[in-house]
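Quick check before the chapter quiz. The format below is the same one you will see on the exam, so make sure you can read both the input and the output lines.
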Amino acid sequence: MTDRSEQVEQHFHRTSKGFDSYYKDKKGVFSKLIDETFRRSMRMRYEKVIGSIAPYEGKTVLDVGCGAGRYCIALADKGIKKALGVDFAENMIEEAKLLSRAFEMTEICEFERRDFMDMDTEQRFHHVIAMGVLDYVEDAVSFVKKMVETATDSVMVSFPTTKGVIQKFRRFKFEKINKCPIHFYTVEDVERIAREAGGERIIVDKMAKDLFLTIKK
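Here is the expected output.
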């Protein structure tokens, strides 16, 4: 693991509880306002992923950088066959396992603490997703290429856009305060990354402060 990867791991190990708070239902008015203002793209990409995988029966999903496992658990509830979530932040994986038990999804959902780039590609999945992950990946082409090699049906990836005051603040917060590297992308960047990663059927959608890449196999 590189020094930059260790910085990212440490950041998410420290902030796992707060990060997952977006998906919780019981919030105050102020928290809901913050979510709608600053995290609208998180809701949009969540709805996009869940909707794009339908029909669910028999499907398998790999969630790279799964966090607290909300995508896996939601898809398990929809009726998919199997979901594997991987993340290298220990606290995130522990939270995901707790939620999986709470929702009685342990037979469908598995969560492992590991680096996706160290995984072999022998096990294939219908859909491979990475939401809120490429923000922190130094070599985006290699990362997406491995996703393409692991998927049989589609790859879905979110990328933060370069535009906006909020993004400038986010860069300052992560790099100067949290000491965590972060990356931003243009549409052209995402299209180039997808092509160099071996994608042929490429779709890039704009979602608030995100770009949502779909690569269909």
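If your answer matched, good. The helical segments are 3-20, 29-38, 40-53, 70-78, 90-102, 140-150, 165-177, 187-196.
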